[in-house]
Each structure stands twice: as structure tokens, then as C-alpha cells.
């Protein structure tokens, strides 16, 4: 079997917390995670954006970078970027082959009692790819939680914890304190931890973890002057921190919520100087300005007259950020194509998005976890019975149907939904 297919086949084993598998894999591969310096990003929302900004800045400073993020939108290769570009399929196949061979050997020896999950194996693939590419520094986005996430096998120079909010409660807990405890698991002795979260219930847990482990906590907003304005659809940020005055920067990522992400990324980059990795202010500015992160407030052209705004908005906090942006960019509302996984807080997401929707087109992304559109429609009927609702089974057809009633439309609710739409938009 093709090694990439073998890697993807591990998805059948779902989610399993714990570091035993990734530790065994890294040992069997002669510890590729020790061949480069690393930075780790945890949080509920914004961690991908912060990772992308930080990696762009590190690259602008002249470092050879790796970036590991999840999930991917269209192609598996997107998860593994070297110098800002997804790895080639041949390189991914070679690294996947190495890891799958090692898994077979560890299973045969009894060092692995069960098959690793897809994410555990993919994380090992990322480490192997980065070692082969001889990257200087890798920016790693936590997959789920932090404490028992496969990425947490590294000893990073510094970490960022973006926000703490409700998502994946089945795995992370049902209180902000419990979720913060899991995110704070990335904190290691002696490191610097930049925290964007301000809610006391969560921040107290993170601060306690820093004290217990001898880590330095940096509250991202402390001592910072940040003023933003929406100019021609883009956010302009005027930023000064205790370390530097960055002037006014046109952020590469849209949305007012990216201001907080930008501040967190900047403070993280500044913290790296304390650990021997200096990033000059000009490179920091480049990281904020030049960053690209598809599927996050991402306008795409549908035809000469119409566009679609793609945004994952896969939990209530993400939906609220999208709604805030739509309130500014599309104050009259627009049709929204919505598809979601059934294990999400769908009511919370709809509560944020329904006021922005002139018409809701409900669809079903690929995957066993997807919620049936009819079930979403029943929920909408209890919340906004007067809101027009149309069920369109196929996501692409749903976008076409929405475009038929308005020039600009939005698609949100799941990264899997966006992946299907992007694959259609990007086809030759």
C-alpha cells in the first residue's frame, strides 16, 4: 500500500490521548524532534493564525522554518510546510514510509501494543520531514488540548496559549479551568509562555502551572498599546510593546479578532530573544503583513459578479468572530452556507451567525461526524422560525444555490466544508 494511504488509514483509530505512542515513535526514529528548535502554540481559537504569523516572521528573519498545523483543507501536504510551502508529495511519501515502517517494527517488538492514531503518526512524519529539511526552527500547532497531545513531546523554546473557550468538551472538560489545565500542559520548566487569554478562571490555572514549573508567564496585552481600524476591508494595526514600536501595519489576515492574535504572535516572537532566537522588528512586521492562512475570513471569487467568504467558524467563539466581521463588512447580511459536525455546539454557533444570515443554505460536509441538514433545520426553526432555510445536500451545490440569490455569500461551520468548496474553486 502507498505509505500515504497507510498513514490515512490510521484515521479509523480516532482520537486517543497520551504520549506513549509518540515517545516510542520518536525514540525508534532516533529523535527527529531534537534536531531543530521548536515553538508550540496551544489554545481554543487563533492558534493556527498565531502559528502562521510566527512562522512567517521567523522565515523573514532568515531562518529555515517548518510549520505543522491541522487539519488540512484540501491536501494532506498542507499540514507540513517548509519555508512556508507545503511539502511535495514525494517527500511526504518518503517520510510516511519511514514512519509506517517504524510503526510495524515497534508493533512486532511489542514496544507499541496498539496502532497509533493518525495524528500521532502524522506528528512523527512532521518531525522526520523537518529533520530531513534541516530546518532551524519549527512552529507546532497543538492538535487537541496540549498536555497529552502528540506535539507535546518536544521541549520548545517558548509557547503561546491564545484563548481558552468551550470546544471538544468531551475530551478537554466542561469548565474553563479544566480546559485551561489541558492547554497549560505544554508548559515546560524554564520556558517563556505568552498568554492571550484574559478570563481569570483560565488565566489562574495557567499562572499556577508556570509557577509550579518555573516558567515565565507573559500576559500578551500587558504594557501594549494597540489601536486598530478597518481600512478598505483590511485591519490596520498600530502597535507598541514594551520591547519595540512597530508603527502601523496592514494585517495580512482579516477580522478584528486578528488584532489579539497579532499581539500574541509579536510577544511570542519577542520572547524568543530570551532563548537565543532573535527576530528583528522588521521581520516581526513582515510576519503580520505577509502572512497567509487560507479558510479564515478568506474571500474567493466565484464569478465576475460574486464572491464567497470562507471561514471555518467551527465553535461558538469562532462563529462570534465571523459574525463581528460580517457586521462590519456586510452590515445588511448575506446568505450563509452552513455545514457542521454533530459533536459541536451547533446552537451556540447558530446563535452568533443567524442574525447575519439573510437566507440559510444547510448542507452536509463529508465525514461520519457531519450533522444531518434536516437536524440543523429543526434547530433553526426553534431559534429563528422566520429565517428562510434551504437544504442542499452537496456543499458545492449549496454555494451555487446561495450565489443564485445574492452576489456575495458566506460558507462556514466546518473546516471539512471549506475543504470541499476550496477543492472545487481551485480545480484546473
Can you tell me about this structure?
An 8-stranded mixed beta sheet has the order 4-3-2-5-1-6-7-8, sandwiched between helices. A 6-stranded mixed beta sheet has the order 12-13-17-14-15-16, with helices on both faces. It folds into 2 domains: 3-290, 3-Layer(aba) Sandwich (UDP-N-acetylmuramoyl-L-alanine:D-glutamate ligase), CATH 3.40.1190; 298-425, Alpha-Beta Complex (Protein-Tyrosine Phosphatase, Chain A), CATH 3.90.190. The model has no long low-confidence stretch (mean pLDDT 94). It is an alpha/beta fold. The radius of gyration is 21 Å and the shape is globular. α7 packs parallel to α8. The protein contains 15 helices and 17 strands.
TL;DR of this structure?
With 428 residues, the protein is α/β, with parallel strands linked by helices. Helix content is 40%, strand content 19%.
Amino acid at each position: 500500500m502507498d505509505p500515504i494511504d497507510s498513514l490515512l488509514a490510521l484515521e479509523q483509530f480516532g482520537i486517543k490521548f497520551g504520549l506513549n505512542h509518540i515517545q516510542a515513535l520518536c525514540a525508534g526514529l532516533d529523535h527527529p524532534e531534537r534536531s531543530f528548535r521548536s515553538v508550540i502554540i496551544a489554545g481554543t481559537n487563533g492558534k493556527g493564525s498565531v502559528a502562521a504569523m510566527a512562522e512567517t516572521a521567523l522565515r523573514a528573519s532568515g531562518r529555515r522554518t517548518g510549520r505543522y498545523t491541522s487539519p488540512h483543507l484540501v491536501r494532506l501536504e498542507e499540514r507540513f510546510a517548509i519555508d512556508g510551502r507545503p511539502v511535495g508529495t514525494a517527500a511526504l511519501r518518503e517520510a510516511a514510509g519511514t514512519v509506517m515502517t517504524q510503526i510495524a517494527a515497534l508493533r512486532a517488538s511489542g514496544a507499541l501494543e496498539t496502532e497509533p492514531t493518525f495524528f500521532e503518526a502524522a506528528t512523527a512524519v512532521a518531525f522526520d520531514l523537518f529533520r530531513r529539511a534541516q530546518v532551524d526552527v519549527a512552529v507546532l500547532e497543538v492538535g487537541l488540548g496540549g498536555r497529552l497531545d502528540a506535539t507535546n513531546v518536544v521541549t520548545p523554546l517558548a509557547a503561546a496559549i491564545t484563548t481558552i473557550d468551550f470546544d471538544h468538551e468531551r475530551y478537554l472538560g466542561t469548565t474553563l479551568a479544566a480546559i485551561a489545565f489541558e492547554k497549560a500542559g505544554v508548559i515546560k520548566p524554564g520556558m517563556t509562555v505568552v498568554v492571550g487569554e484574559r478570563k481569570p478562571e483560565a488565566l489562574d490555572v495557567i499562572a499556577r502551572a508556570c509557577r509550579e514549573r518555573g516558567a515565565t508567564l507573559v500576559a500578551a496585552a500587558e504594557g501594549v498599546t494597540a489601536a486598530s481600524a478597518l481600512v478598505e476591508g483590511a485591519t490596520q494595526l498600530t502597535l507598541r510593546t514594551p520591547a519595540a514600536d512597530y508603527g502601523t501595519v496592514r494585517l495580512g489576515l482579516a477580522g478584528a479578532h486578528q488584532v489579539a492574535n497579532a499581539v500574541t504572535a509579536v510577544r511570542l516572537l519577542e520572547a524568543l530573544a530570551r532563548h537565543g532566537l532573535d527576530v528583528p522588528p522588521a521581520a516581526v512586521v513582515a510576519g503580520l503583513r505577509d502572512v497567509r492562512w487560507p479558510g479564515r475570513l478568506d474571500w474567493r471569487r466565484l464569478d465576475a459578479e460574486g464572491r464567497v467568504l470562507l471561514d471555518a467558524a467551527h465553535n461558538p467563539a469562532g462563529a462570534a468572530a465571523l459574525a463581528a466581521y460580517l457586521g462590519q463588512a456586510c452590515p445588511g447580511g448575506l446568505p450563509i452556507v452552513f455545514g457542521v459536525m454533530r459533536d459541536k455546539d451547533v446552537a451556540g454557533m447558530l446563535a452568533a451567525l443567524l442574525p447575519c444570515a439573510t437566507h440559510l443554505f444547510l448542507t452536509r460536509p463529508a465525514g461520519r461526524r457531519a450533522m444531518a441538514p434536516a437536524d440543523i433545520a429543526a434547530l433553526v426553526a426553534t431559534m429563528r422560525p422566520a429565517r428562510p432555510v434551504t437544504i442542499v445536500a452537496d456543499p458545492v451545490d449549496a454555494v451555487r444555490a446561495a450565489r443564485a440569490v445574492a452576489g456575495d455569500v458566506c460558507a462556514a461551520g466546518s473546516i471539512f466544508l471549506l475543504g470541499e468548496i476550496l477543492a472545487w474553486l481551485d480545480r484546473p
